[in-house]
UniProtKB/TrEMBL annotation:
Broad EC category: transferase
Keyword flag Repeat: no
Highest rank taxon of the organism: Eukaryota
Organism: Phoenix dactylifera
EC number: 2.5.1.25
Gene Ontology molecular function terms on file: tRNA-uridine aminocarboxypropyltransferase activity
Catalytic activity: a uridine in tRNA + S-adenosyl-L-methionine = a 3-[(3S)-3-amino-3-carboxypropyl]uridine in tRNA + S-methyl-5'-thioadenosine + H(+)
Gene that this sequence comes from: LOC103702481
Keyword tRNA processing: yes
Domain DTW span(s) in chain numbering: 154-296
BP GO terms, sorted: tRNA processing
Protein name per the record: tRNA-uridine aminocarboxypropyltransferase
Keywords, alphabetical: S-adenosyl-L-methionine, Transferase, tRNA processing
């Protein structure tokens, strides 16, 4: 997520994305961080050979396996395995047989390497260009990114903290409960999924995946779960956080005490039935701009 520390929050009413079912779509209130976008910190450089060596220790047969529900949810999500991700992995296995070459991964982000990469690159570009619908192209792009990262990180990264197993920090994390009536949605770009220096993962590591839910940009199953939750809670219970300096500030406390005054007990009952949804965009500045446009359309 962009590393900003705002003094206050800002708000703007916008409509929900047009690709959800229009008959029951709910316009969502947006919440903005009142600060100018900070300069992004320099990226850490990881030694590619270290990642490659760890991957080489796993067998090719292990990489070629499909992703089970247990493995998928072990990375921090509570959804089913996305259909297109599973389909792409099956395509990898079929291409191995067709080309008589084996998958190999290395470098940052679980990237394909070697002769298999060349063949797969030709095939996936042809498939991508054959798709006429922009939504299908986005879903294919996102699913392929995630499929490669899943297979390339298997046996190398800790599933909980997304760090190399020898650098696992899970024992240093202290879980705690999120305040009743609040739900975080981490709307993450596929290029940030399983990224070692990603900090958004700390949300569900700390509060649990039900209180802080991962939603991957362009993954149909994930986004549908999020849209359904927004419709259930209603337009006044959904807030998107995104940097903006042109709107008047409003404190987070105002969110909880807008509207008719009610007792704390009544307020707790209402929030348990329809929680406040806070959506945090997790991606680079250029990628998060595309994600924000998708949310506000």
């Amino acid at each position: 997520m962009p590393p900003t520390h705002p003094p206050s929050l800002q708000f703007l009413n916008l409509t929900m994305p047009i690709h959800v079912r229009p008959a029951c779509a709910v316009p969502a209130t947006r919440c903005f961080l009142a600060s100018s976008p900070p300069t992004m910190p320099a990226k850490k450089t990881w030694v590619a050979s270290r990642a490659s060596t760890a991957r080489e220790s796993s067998s090719v047969a292990e990489w070629a396996k499909g992703v089970s529900l247990e493995e998928w949810q072990g990375w921090g999500t509570s959804s089913s395995v996305p259909a297109m991700v599973a389909e792409i992995i099956r395509g990898f296995r079929a291409l191995e047989q067709e080309t008589n070459s084996s998958m190999s991964f290395g470098g940052l982000g679980g990237k394909l390497q070697g002769s298999f990469k060349v063949q797969e690159d030709i095939k996936h570009r042809a498939l991508y260009n054959s798709l006429r619908d922009s939504e299908k192209k986005l879903q294919f792009f996102s699913a392929r990114q995630i499929a490669c990262r899943l297979l390339g990180s298997r046996g190398y990264l800790c599933q909980k903290c997304w760090l190399p197993m020898e650098d696992c920090m899970c024992s240093k994390l202290v879980p705690c409960s999120l305040w009743c009536g609040i739900k975080f949605w981490l709307y993450m770009h596929p290029k940030d999924f399983l990224r070692q220096n990603n900090t958004g993962k700390l949300l569900w590591q700390t509060f649990g995946s039900q209180a802080a839910t991962l939603c991957l940009f362009g993954i149909h199953e994930h986004e549908e779960i999020m849209w359904d939750a927004f419709r259930h809670s209603g337009k006044n219970m959904v807030w998107f956080l995104y940097p903006n300096k042109s709107l008047s500030p409003k404190s987070a406390q105002d969110i909880f005490f807008e509207g008719p005054s009610t007792g704390l007990k009544d307020q707790k009952v209402v929030l348990e039935e329809k929680p406040l949804n806070f959506v945090l965009i997790d991606g680079t500045w250029s990628n998060s701009a595309a994600m924000y446009r998708r949310l506000k359309v």
